[in-house]
Amino acid sequence: MSDARRAVPRTDVVLDDPALRPAVARLGRAVVKQEVLRAQHRVRTGDLKAAAVLASVLAALPDVAASLRPVLNATGVLLHTNLGRAPLSAAAIDALVAAAGTTDVELDLATGARGRRGRGAMEALRAAVPTAGDVHVVNNGAAALVLAATALAAGREIVIARGEMVEIGDGFRLPDLLESTGARLREVGTTNRVTRADYADAVGPDTGFVLKVHPSNFVVQGFTSSVGPDQLHDLGVPVVADIGSGLLRPHPALPDEPDATTSLAAGAHLVTASGDKLLGGPQAGLLLGDADLVHRLRRHPLARALRVDKLTLAALEATLRGPATPTEVALARRPADLLARAEVAAELLRAAGVDAVGVACAATVGGGGAPGVELPSAAVSLPADYAARLRAARTPVLARTERGRCLLDLRTVDEGQDDALVAAVLTC
Fold first, then answer.
1. Residue 100 burial (CB < 10 Å; 0-12/13-18/19+)?
2. Using 50, 70 and 90 to split pLDDT, how confident is the model at 11?
3. C-alpha dist (Å) from residue 201 to 207, 229, 233, 307, 318
4. Please, which pLDDT band fits residue 144 given cuts at 50, 70 and 90?
5. What pTM was estimated for this model as a whole?
6. In sequence order, what DSSP letters do the residues of 156-222 get, joined into one string?
7. What DSSP assignment string belongs to 84-111?
């Protein structure tokens, strides 16, 4: 019996093959070598013929040198945290690529002197929220709140309603986050009810600010009451409103979702929000409000540790100035159009022998935005085992299972991706 190891082609010989040179130039020798080693191992175990090593390597090579893989979101969750929340617009992607080289991020080209960092993005954010006296950007929504708590309330008290002491995901709890800054929490009201008098009684000389937190990932119903910034702005201390989802102005599809423009007009002195949720931009923490407060935050030593890079600034500015984001487009899709697309896709799949049918369903915003809101949608319904099979595709497709079926919800799928979705089902 011949030794399979004798048939394994040498690593350097495979790597030097002209067919792999473009991949080595694009991905780097280490990435390509890893796939060569995997193919050689398969030859040794008898899973691959020695003559097929090169073809196997070429087929297995990734498109880019990073390990993150593009995933087709067919879950019906517009802002899926596990998928990176908001997908960027084409304008934001172009801006990000343009900013990848050397840029004038902190340079005034007219004078050659140092310029204000990210001035274009800040101007765009101020223009988008005219009720804000000034704006600042940090690296995520939690960082925005941490900066506010550190600068305004370290060693002092933050007054907060007991029903707004939320857990923000992955085991991180708002009270722990705030107390890590050295602030003390003064809880007021009960789990389901709080009044203006509760806040007024708690505010004193040691109060750093009053914090209003939008419960963005749950809904409290029944015998409830809450207090808005319009009733708290005259208590003699700043009111900070953490609206979470990053909605900058009212949206007709989400009438109950707080937005930055309205919150500031109602009396909030400072609003914190995320850039990668309903705004549809990159991960960022937005701080908007009173000019003096924002200046204090910008000049605090912690702000340096939380600042964003040039790529985030470029993508954020393009998101604010550019065309509708994929998130906006997804919110605006009409249920009738979605059902028509689902039925066309299902018909193509049935013609190939797949048990598929177009069905009406409900999508959600997700990502800590618009809790309890259902968006009428439509999906391609498949046997349940397709959910796992589609995750294993070369371009993975993430679906959801419901009532024993795998649903490909089209509200989160761009119209131009329908053919790719059908192809993924047929080949998985």
1. exposed
2. very high
3. 11, 16, 14, 36, 45
4. very high
5. 0.91
6. SEEEEEGGG--EEETTEEHHHHHHTTT-EEEEES-SSB--HHHHHHH--TTEEEEEEE--TT----S
7. TSSPPPHHHHHHHHHTTSS--TTB-TTT
